[in-house]
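A note from the maintainers: we've had questions about how concatenated examples are separated. There is no special marker in the raw files; a new sequence line simply starts the next protein. For clarity in this README we add a label.
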Amino acid sequence: MKAVIPGVLREEPEFARLFAGQSLSVLGDRVSFVAVPFAVLSVGGSASDVGLVTAAALLPLLLFTLVGGVWADRFRPHRIMLLSDLLRCAVQGTAAVLLITGTATVTHLVLLMALFGTADAFFMPASTGLLPLVVPPGRLREANALRGFVQSGGLVLGPALAGGLVALAGPGGALAFDALTFATSALFLSGLRPRGKTVDGAGGGILPELRAGWAQVRSRTWVWSGMAAMAVYHVVVLPAVFVLGPVLAQRQWGGAAGWSLVVAAFGVGAIVGDVCAYRLRMARPMAVAAAALAVASCQAAIIGSGGSVALIAALEAVTGVAVSLFFVLWETALQTHIPEGSLSRVSSYDNLLSAGLMPLGLALAGPASASLGVRTTLFAMTALAVPAALALLCVPAVRRLPAHLPVDGAAEPPADLPGEPVPGDAAEPPAAAADRVPAGPAGG
């Protein structure tokens, strides 16, 4: 039995508890990913309405994610995650009741998704900051890969489950299931006991602490350039997945069933990417991540290619590998190289400059496709996104960032300041190579 259970789950009970709760919650998220667009369409909404509802869930990131980062660095991050789960449970439960009773409108869904997004804005930086408090530094990549494995597995199981729930109980039934998973996650979080952490705040209120967090971002070229590339990916590429993909599916691929097949294929590829991230030893992980982001940025052109659903699904599986590799390696790099007392604030800037800006792309995707045509819009998205990812690969600090800090675990010095070395621009110290996580069996 031990041979098939990853060591980090056997040996780190707090991570195992976190992992169990988040695993079911991720499945609910994947069900919701499919159900929400069809919930909007089921109440008479248009493609623009799908974008509006999705944007409503993401817009609060612009308003609250920085505050969420400060709170997560100042207080216990798992308590913030617990409150977020309880609020999202209430939101999805309310949406489910309105849909099942036939009283839901697009306006209701917009308002509810705005509340959902507010809870998300506090959850995400807290989640990033929590992991180093339940996992030792040498196992962060392993833990992130396992979390990614569950998220990717949810992309395979979630659409299939969502298709069945939507067919049997409508989108409302699917969202009721999501509400139940949030309640379960909250139960696991209530029993979590992470270790204490070093507080690395400037004091004096939210603004000084935000300035201190921003100093951690701007002093590292690989961090701010990575955030810029991800902003392009979230604003330009992901609207193809959230808005235009379901629209094409509704028109040409047989509705939810066709879209679920594409999403599930992406999930299979993402699982392969997580296995690669778990097993492969990468001396320069951010260089691999940047190359993977360029592949991931091809998603819009693939969805709009006009190929068969089977061909599109197969190509989306390839991009799934790339997406998983990028996000596992990016999260691990932040958790490794950013001081833990500032990590949630840095993560909040990450969310703000990537997912927080996505509502702009979502709001424009529908009108742009109405004016230019869906396929022309999708090809234009790829033409903008791929060069941005390739530009990230050209940044020396990105290509040279080592996988590990020196063996003494000291925080890396600020980058790009006068008289200071750029972290990752020097060769990786010999001790770092010996400190790598051993390759092992992926998955459970």
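[label: protein 2]
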Amino acid sequence: MNRNVGAEEKFRIMTQAPVERLICSLAAPTIVSMLISAIYNMADTFFISKISTSASGAVGISFSLMAIIQALGFTIGMGSGNYISRLLGQKERKYASCVAATGFFTALLLGAMLALLGLLFLNPLVYLLGATPTIAPHARSYIRYILIGAPYMMASFVLNNILRFQGSAFFAMIGIATGGVINIILDPIFIFVFKMGTGGAALATIISQFISFLILYWNSGKGGNIKIKFKNFSLKWEIYKEILKGGLPSFFRQVLGSISMICLNFSARPYGDAAIAAMAIVTRLFQFAMSAVIGFGQGFQPVCGFNYGARKYERVLKAFWFSVKTAAVFLTVLSFFGFSFSRQIISIFRKEDIEVLSIGVKALRFQCITFPLSSWIIMTNMLLQTIGKGLQASIVSASRQGLFFIPAVVVLPRLFGLIGVQISQPVSDVFSFLLAVPMALSTLKELELLSKEEKSIAGLKDAI
């Protein structure tokens, strides 16, 4: 999409351009953003794994806290963005400005509160997240810096989503990509040159995130987008209600993701630091792969939101099916590759530790078997969330890493030992898929009926 179009031209493009081309044009920068974010998370894992197995395990421990920060940021960001896209589809720009400002400044405040509490109770927090005595020192060094950056990291998630839902994924990509590249450059410098260990990786992360924050904020008012202004900040319950309705699915997904990581760490802990490190590596690998699909889905969401708000339901349906088919093909190819080259992939991170390699290869292969099912789960969640079906979206969102994964990762290791840890996510994926199928089909049927009604109304108007 032309990055310098005005608000009226942007509305025309979002509601009239062919959905396949539109989704791809919006998805390209979001995929780049998501992949770069995943790459610099992978960079942390890669460089820290060169320190020791215990340091590598600290990444898995710290990932739980990162998921909490993301949970709050995405809750407000996705909720604000979803609501803004529908408001813009209804041409309610002034009210959309209030929603944007409210989401942004609320995230800054919540991030500051989380940082204060986390730093005050840092030591118990590390063990609460599942650290062993040998992993704890590395985890403390990492988490301390992450907490310092929590306020603007959380606000960055909001800015990213607000820009994306306005159809300006390019501006969001610039901020995320710049920070990601800087993070990758700073990681080895802080870790090895300055000999800061895991703390150096975290310092690199918060510096790069701060630069991303500044770029995202600077771009917030460009290209026909809403400019974030404090005077538009509002404490109206009506705004927060809509933000929560649109954002709670992301909250459940991210918070349950954090809880699931804690449960995974505790379930893997009896098998030693190698098991925690191996599962942390596999989790990061799948986060990387999933980020591309989520990025593609984020190209679908503004198309869905604008057209749903403009009552163009046929375009919503067409966009959904195109997104599901594309994601399914991509994940199938990726899973085949991951299964076939699992040993080579895991050895990139920790080839010198045979135990980490053995555990990681088997876990990676198990997850590749069911990974293509995530295409339906993710797109169903995004459809429900964007059109305002908050409860259904929350249930689907909570299923993969909460409703099914947490019981699986608690129960299966007791029954099958280490294999139970390794198969927990694949088992969860199967049940999540079975849950998402009827939810999506019922919603698609509703959209088909609404589309027929709109065509009938348009036909009557033409006849008159």
